[in-house]
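Field reference: sequence -> structure
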Amino acid sequence: MTIATMRAALTQDDIRRLVRGETPEERAQAASKICRRIGGADLSPQDREKAQTILEMMAADAAELVRGALAQTLRHSPYLPRELALRLARDVDMVAIPILSNSPCLNDQDLMELLEEGSPDRQTAIARRPVLSEELTGVICLKAHRQAVEAAALNEGASFSDTAFESLFRRFSDDEGVKEALVSRRALPTHVAEKLVTMVTGDLFDRLVNRHELPPQLAIEIATGARERATLDLVEQAGLSTDPERFAQQLNLNGRLTPSLIMRALCLGHMTFVEYAMAELAGVPRSKAWIMIHDAGALGLKTVFERAGLPSGMFLAFRMAVDVYHNTDMNGLPGDRERFRQRMIERVLTQFQAIPRADLDYLLDKLDALDPARARRRYAGAA
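Structure field:
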């Protein structure tokens, strides 16, 4: 698109309002329309230079409303010249914050300088960018205001190094908001979750130990009440574990690798853990356990089941749950894991009723958590 084409796409009134508009509102409206054209245009170097002149004219407008329209409209555009992005990022908050929060034209060095000189609100805008490198997150944790650090902790696009976590803990170990933000992250390194265990209490503690992977022995100690009163679900920890083999070994060493735990894990779809658990109890490599569970028919499954020492009365339920697992597909859509789990539990409950009462209640509670409307119907019927 050339400047001539771009001008043709605009009206003469747009250009006139930008240059001669009597009110900031008129000029801001024209600025928004022109920026939308420039922001997505594939311009030649010559036309880009002319477009930059138009943008600079907008950035020099005395009215914040016009400069704000420029910043808001081009906040995501890769075509905004870096020098102009920096100029807008140092403007008043109304103009600066959209650029600080979003502009891809600012590099890490720019953002670190802007962070150093910025107010808490501006630092927070940077901390909320869609992607933060480890280096930038580290500077935020080391130097920024607490609200910016909390924003970074809440930002799933922020990459944290061990050094960043150390800075955060050193500065904000007593700040409940920052700790809660960390607990709310989708995932935490195991050593970070372990450190937080000693720093949080109450509901936040429960959320931490049931949302994030913990070292196996620590998880077992919490589940048995040796560390603090809490409701820790070892089945969910089994699903969270990045080292299910070690987790199964630790559970076995502590006498916690029970038939009930394995059955619950199977019904929740934690098949990798189940394979390691069966291998651990049967005294065979996981590769052999996998074949016997998945690829050797009913006889292979029964053999590994018996070698693991699981009660014979549970075999039919176990075999049916394995069949349900094989016949329940993951389709890759948002909420996939939750839908898979819901289908898995529903099929197990409807196809096999002879499940021990404690396990039945456990699975019903998990189903209720996935379907609140079902939970209300269940408790209304019990009332």
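Note: Residues 279 and 285 are 6 Å apart (CA to CA).
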